[in-house]
Write a structure and sequence with these properties.
heterodimer; A: alpha/beta; Rossmann fold; 5-stranded parallel beta sheet; 12 helices; B: alpha/beta; 7-stranded mixed beta sheet
Chain lengths: 347, 326
Amino acid sequence: MSKKHSDRAQEGEQAQEGEQAQAGEQAQATEPDRDLYLRIFRVMALHRAVEDRMVSMYRQGEMLGSVYTGHWHEAIAVGSAAALRQDDFLCPIHRDLGAHLWRGMEPWQVMASFLGKATSPTGGRDGTLHYGRLDLGIYNLPSHIPDNYPVAIGGAFAFKYRSEDRVALAYCGDGSTSRGDFHEAVNIAAVLDLPCVFVVENNQFAYSTPLRLQSRTDFATKAVAYGIPGEKVDGTDVVAVYEATDRAVRRARAGEGPSLIECVTMRMHGHAEHDPADYVPREMFEEWSAKDPVELFGARLQELGFASAEDVAGMRDEARRIAIEARKKSLSDPMPVPDREEERVYA
Amino acid sequence: MPENDVTYLDAISQALMAEMEADDSVFLIGEDVGQFGGAFKVTKGFLEKFGERRVVDTPIAESGFTGLAAGAALNGLRPVVEYQFADFISTAWDQITNVIARHYYRTGDPMPITFRCPFGARLRAGPTHSQSIESYFAHTPGLKIVAPATVEDAAGLLRSAIRDNNPVLYLESKYLYRRIKAPGPLSLDLVPIGKARIAREGDRVTVVTYSASVHQAMEAAAVLAEEGISVEIVDVRTLVPLDIDTIVRSVEKTGRAVVLHEAPRRLGYGAEIAAEIQERCFWSLDQPVTRIAARNTPIPTSPPLEDAMLPSTTEVIDTVRKVATS
């Protein structure tokens, strides 16, 4: 635990927008990896393009219900997922499309879920944001977040039980930290020393409820009370998220127990697309609009000499093309047909 | 008690031990299950035998360790979750209903979890240590619910529950723990989930019941037999899925049905059984299907109050006699 975090705990310091803490003494910048960074950028661009497409589908009345997006969460979703192995266990929430895409989820399947199609991962039995696939190591969560937190520690428990060096990673929002399942999961993981990484996506609002009504402290600070490492990073900086997650994952794999990472960003859309988010001060949107994680990483790739401006534009065009094709396929896919549904309730 | 006799509690313990010996993916998790051996000593000696890896003491966090069981089940393990008293399962309600019960229907991924729930009244334990929880969960698709009444069923149904690929609520009667016994050594044969048992044959009236109430029905039937009233007792053993065929066969034979349980009457599981009987056996019935259940109050602590709240054996005798002879 870095001294900075201990001080914070004493001060009860309120989270500041966009604040980026030093990662502590364990921080060590990794050498930029061109192939990895380009792959991360492609998935971040796809995350954005698929969600932009789904927003337009919502506006055209094509979706069953609302659409939940992760605009300005792309760096968190992809940066953290990129630090995992494919055999790790991922327990995402509704802002983490990029984490699904990183592990192999098809964009059209996600759209099919929002459309209630037979081709969605649940065959239309669940829908909208509930599209996890266990064959990709992705838990399909219910609506009651952070119910995925206790489930994640169960995956970590199974890995430790069999002496496997796999880890579990769970996401939740700032609002979810107020529920008992957050506390129970993090505390159990701490006392049982489970290989689990907890990511808190601090996006300033839980539906309409601002941070000041959610917590007197920031979220990395809460780790102190559980006796586990806590780290706060800029959630719009994908390299920062990747490196913080990589450190936490390495600790977990080495048998050094759970960690908590707070990633600070802004929810740039409403809770879902039906929500105009009138409760958000206009200045906040203006301020955060300069911190688009996809744009920021595109610029970084150019600074590093990993891609030209044309390359970056080309990757974003490719993402847009995939999203357009995904829309076509998902719209033309069949709806499910009720078929002995009562016989599907039990295994 | 003879040296070789096995109690209902021993049966649970032996079945659990047999399953843990047979399958390394089975583990036990809950509060005080390890070094303390469980609040009722069901798991006494388990920690010494299986170690901390498979006998896991947790913080007081029912929701947390229930969700842990879900994640472990999705990753190849077969958790047995102990709630110290069934009453405390309320704090894991969300994980059981929203995470676990509907997961298979939503995704096709099995959730092999057994929830051990010491439940029921008559121990002067009061409003929050005596509850019957079956109706809360019977309403939720995706859960199976078993409630053994005998020593043999306590063992056989627990083994079946642990081997089942679905979440199973195993309701163990803490009133029966040390009150009933069977000659040892105990058969640990599997008892299939979803099969009722004729606990006593008769031809005048059918009593449909489960768990500790089966023994009350047996007492009442013995008294009524002396009066020449022949009572058939169906021990349903499994509430979900309900073996309605066995119940229907009995009621078609006797033409009279009484449903008995110690849970409160309003929307108790007896209401479901009674509704099924009247829909399926209407033309065979000589009398309305009658329920005997607890009053619609919390379970009081003091003996005179608790006794007045629960069905008494006298009440069972009188009600069954009335239905049988009207």
